[in-house]
Write a structure and sequence with these properties.
It is a single chain. By secondary structure, this protein is mostly helical. Helices cover about 75% and strands about 0% of the residues. The chain has 2 helices and no strands. It has helices at about 5-10, 20-65. The longest helix is centred in the middle third of the chain and has 44 residues, at about 20-65.
């Protein structure tokens, strides 16, 4: 199952001595979440458009068969 933006936001990492700067990681993950969310919305919009085109195609195919 793909990650959700919420899962990315809620992800916790263990802290170790001389680890990454947590503020930099948080800023980067915020950008990732924003882009990931935009991709999910775009995918949903494209899926809706595809479904609409398929419905129109099926309606036209039925009329041609008659």
């Amino acid at each position: 199952m793909p990650l959700t933006p919420k899962q990315i936001l809620d992800k916790e990492f263990t802290k170790k001595f001389k680890g990454y700067n947590t503020e930099e990681v948080d800023v980067f993950l915020d950008e990732v979440i924003k882009d990931y969310d935009a991709l999910i919305k775009e995918k949903e919009a494209l899926q809706a458009e595809k479904d609409e085109i398929e419905q129109k195609y099926n309606a036209i195919s039925e009329r041609i068969e008659k």
